Amino acid sequence: MNTKKCYAKNYCKMYSTSKCNERCDFWWKLNNIYNKSNLPVRYRYDIPLRPELSDRQSFTQLKGFMDNVVERVENGDSLYIYSGTTGNGKTTWSSKIMNMYIRKIVAKSDLEDEVLYLNVSLFVEAMRNQYSEYSDDIATLKERAMNCKLLILDDIGAERPSEYVCERLYDLINHRYTNMLSTIYTSNLTPIELGDRLGARIESRVRSAEQVKLVGADRRTV
Ligand SMILES: Nc1ncnc2c1ncn2[C@@H]1O[C@H](COP(=O)(O)OP(=O)(O)OP(=O)(O)O)[C@@H](O)[C@H]1O
Ligand SMILES: [Mg+2]
């Protein structure tokens, strides 16, 4: 085991001590939950974000959700993080919140289907293929997306899906909404623009989420 690769290295008190060894139960649990989470590796480690003046209030709102993430997920609260600008922290913030949730719940014994990350375009593509060629893996992924405690739907509305895919997306969003399961959406569209693209039924459910708008510049290249 390579402890340097530990996902908890920024916060584990045992990191780099004699107790940091291959018998660490948390290391195995964290690896297991991250492998199942589908969260891209880049976003599993802490990425420090600094707000521009115009985003300070939004950062405070997002930090508030993150600091109370276990309660917020228990309540089934959702977030819609959006911005017309690329590269200003939407995916990073959604991941930070998921990372904090994992950190808080990792000691639990049953970690099946707690968290899942989906890039909506890739998921939509998989569902399109499912229509012509059934796959058990996609059916399982869809089942997990339906029922996990915390789901990230990253970049929703990035493309205009077919009627079939819109319906499947609606089934997913509606199932989570009616079962009070937390979803963090990120998007380059306002809720109204999302409605124009994916339909009023999806918009209406997404609107019940707490909305956070980011207006800062693209920082990806800085
Ligand atoms: N406020 C910030 N402070 C410092 N770095 C930032 C900030 N916002 C973004 N970055 C940097 O930009 C990178 C990209 O951020 P992220 O992937 O979260 O953007 P995004 O808003 O999801 O973009 P897109 O709309 O293209 O999906 C981050 O990994 C980080 O390095
Ligand atoms: Mg993004």
Describe this structure in words.
- By secondary structure, the chain is of the alpha/beta class.
- It has one domain: P-loop containing nucleotide triphosphate hydrolases (Rossmann fold, 3-Layer(aba) Sandwich), CATH 3.40.50.
- Helix content is 47%, strand content 11%.
- The chain has 9 helices and 5 strands; from the N terminus they run αααβαβααβαβααβ.
- Strands 2-3-4-1-5 form a 5-stranded parallel β-sheet, with helices on both faces.
- Strand 3, helix 7 and strand 4 form a beta-alpha-beta unit.
- Helix 2 packs parallel to helix 4, helix 6 packs parallel to helix 7 and helix 7 packs parallel to helix 9.
- The protein is globular.
- Magnesium ion (MG) binds next to helix 4.
Short description:
This protein is 47% helix and 11% strand. By secondary structure, the chain is α/β, with parallel strands linked by helices. A five-stranded parallel beta sheet has the order 2-3-4-1-5, with helices on both faces.
Describe this protein with a few key phrases.
single chain, globular, 222 residues, 11% strand, binds magnesium ion, five-stranded parallel β-sheet
